[in-house]
Amino acid sequence: MLAEGLTLASPLMSPIVKLVAQRIALGILLLLAVSVLIFAGTQILPGDVAQAILGQSATPESLANLREQLGLNQPAYIRYFHWLGGVLTGDLGTAMSSGQDIATSIKGRLWNTLFLAFWAAIVAIPLAITLGLIAVRYRNGWVDKLISGVALASTSFPEFFIGYLLVFYFAVQHQWFPAISTVYDGMSLGERLQAIVLPAAALTLVVLAHMMRMTRAAILNVMQSAYVETAELKGLSAFAVIRKHAFPNAIAPIINVVMLNLAYLVVGVVVVEVIFVYPGMGQYLVDHVTKRDVPVVQAVGLIFAAVYISLNIIADIAAIVANPRLRHPK
Amino acid sequence: MLDIRRIPIPALVGIVLTTLFVLMAVFAPWISPHDNAEIVGDVWEPMSAAHWLGTDNLGRDLLSRMIYGARITLFIAVLATALSFSLGAILGFSAAVFGGWFDTLLSRLVDLLMSIPTLIMALVVLSVLPSNLVTLILVMGILDSTRVYRLSRAVAVDINVMDYVEAAKLRGEGSGWIIFREILPNALSPLVSELGLRFIYAVLFLSTLSFLGLGVQPPDADWGGMVKENKDGIVFGIPAALIPAAAIAALAISVNLVADWVLNRTTSLKGGRG
Q1: Which residues fall in a coiled-coil region (chain B) (predicted)?
Q2: Which residue of A has its CA nearest to B201?
Q3: Taking CB atoms and an 8 Å cutoff, what residues of chain B touch A266?
Q4: Which of A215, A322, B84, B170 could disulfide-link to B144, CB 3.0 to 4.6 Å?
């Protein structure tokens, strides 16, 4: 998007390019700060990390070994730069619990997680926008109240309640879909999709309510403006008003809402993967938190944070680009 | 009866259910038919007259576990909310009153903490911290206090420029007086309406952590932990894990209903701030 802007670098485009570049630079800075935070988060324990990991029964030799392995004999800032240098060159270190290279184990899992999140987003986004539009069209009617009520209820539902309800009805009682989403190399796309139907549905339901409520609010906000009243007064049908006048102006806030909720998928995916025993990043993270495998937790935590921050940056950029006032400066 | 908006039946339902949950938690040892860890029968017995909700994955009475689970869930959620509120509000008010580098430092730190999902940050720190209740409450409370901090700072910045605060400063009151006697009473109503939402968040967050095996440790279990204990039964058609999960949802919805009602009442009384 930045490159596209630069090739068109006319005076007309410059404010957008400047804003977008600023936003990206800020994002990179934030990511760097977050890497410090994540690193510091694993150093906060007063006392000995090695002791905490191995427990009270650890022998002095194994403690010394682990300290050596974690580089605990060096000061924290040296360890941080060492770690950061590794991350920037694609070397995420080795897992303490299994001795495997983290980058290699993550590659397939990252792909699996993105695959799941992608399909959940594909279903959730159009559904949320359509439901939001319907809720606005029949504002204060029973449809709107029903949609709002369901949305309120589902924000109060823990992810695993939705997940296990789906498993109970669709996998156990009707056996339409598998309860455990096994995926492996060499599976065809169709088989993969069949395997992720339930986790994708659970993820969709997790973000749907929130996305829909915010879409509704964004469109309602536009509906109260003068040009919409004019359109109504000149006799356009309610759907025509929404489609021709309200929706184009609400698109920027809606894109923002959608991206923010995709960032919310990042959290939902952790729990959903555990429910369906899906071999993705979330499951990997939770497993290694339990094993107290610090290098893996740092690496995966950083990747989750990077995805989250990137989605937020994209949301901001989309809002900047979709803003007609910035596209056509006076 | 049909006009739900006039008669706040949802609020009434919310109040009754929330009260029931609280009573259940407070009087757990007296009302539960069996002890929390007592094994009373076979694994995953169906619902029966002897065991109203059946038994769990180790043959313990599920109803008794649910009642004790209410106690643990509410206890931790209340303490975490209390911590996040006192910490967030005091720091937020102080930042607004003192301003300068103190405000900048705290606000940037909060921005940083909020720039990644709370669950991810919690998982990172829980990978090295010992698993006990104090750690759990501290992690939940501190991470959640960022949201309270933002709200209280925003509210306090508005109040801090009011004439009565100016007057208090001119007559030589200290920062402690300004924060607790001038700002706190005036910031209370937007903060109280936030309280319900933060409590729901604490319940859901605790349940998620326990479900992932990082919250309350066995043999004690909150509702999220009970879902984890019984989740393997689901594929055999045993709905034991759905009961605590539904209880979490019911608690969250009831508190939500009450919070909504309180919010509407306070905004209509005060002419609507927040």
Answers
A1: none
A2: A156
A3: 117, 120
A4: B84
Interface of A with B in 22-81 (CB under 8 A): 30, 33-34, 37-38, 41-45, 49, 52-53
Is A164 in contact with B242 (Cβ distance < 8 A)? yes
Rounded Cα–Cα distance for residues B14 and B153 (Å): 30
Query: B223: closest CA among A157, A167, A137, A294?
Result: A157
Helices B133-160 and B118-126, axial angle in degrees (round to 10): 140
CB-based contact A152 B120, cutoff 8 Å: no
| B117, B213, B241 member nearest A290 (Cβ) | B213
* B2 in contact with A, Cβ within 8 Å: no
The alpha carbons of chain A give a radius of gyration, in whole angstroms, of 24
**Contact, B182 vs B163, CB < 8 A?**
no
Distances (CA, A) of A278 to A106, A298, B86, B108: 14, 21, 39, 36
Rounded to the nearest angstrom, the minimum Cα separation between B169 and chain A is 37
* A175 touches B: beta carbon within 8 Å: no
Q: Which residues in chain A have Cβ-Cβ distances shorter than 8 Å to B139?
A: none
* 3-state DSSP percent of chain B in helix, strand and coil, to 5: 75, 0, 25
Contact A95, A293 (CB under 8 A): yes
**How far apart are the C-alpha atoms of A232 and A172, rounded to whole Å?**
51
Q: What is the ipTM of this complex?
A: 0.84
- Is B213 in contact with A309 (Cβ distance < 8 A)? no
CB contact under 8 A, B235 and A160: no
Cβ contact B143:B83 at 8 Å:
no
- Return per-residue pLDDT of chain A as tens, 330 residues: 444 444 444 555 577 788 888 889 999 999 999 999 998 888 776 556 677 667 667 777 877 877 777 677 777 788 888 888 888 888 888 887 777 888 888 888 888 898 898 899 889 988 988 888 888 878 788 888 888 788 777 778 888 898 898 888 888 888 788 777 777 777 778 888 888 889 999 999 888 888 888 888 888 888 788 888 888 898 888 878 877 887 777 777 788 778 777 777 877 889 999 998 888 899 999 999 988 888 899 999 999 999 888 888 888 888 777 776 666 655
The answer, yes or no, to whether the previous bond of B219 is cis (omega within 30 of 0) is yes
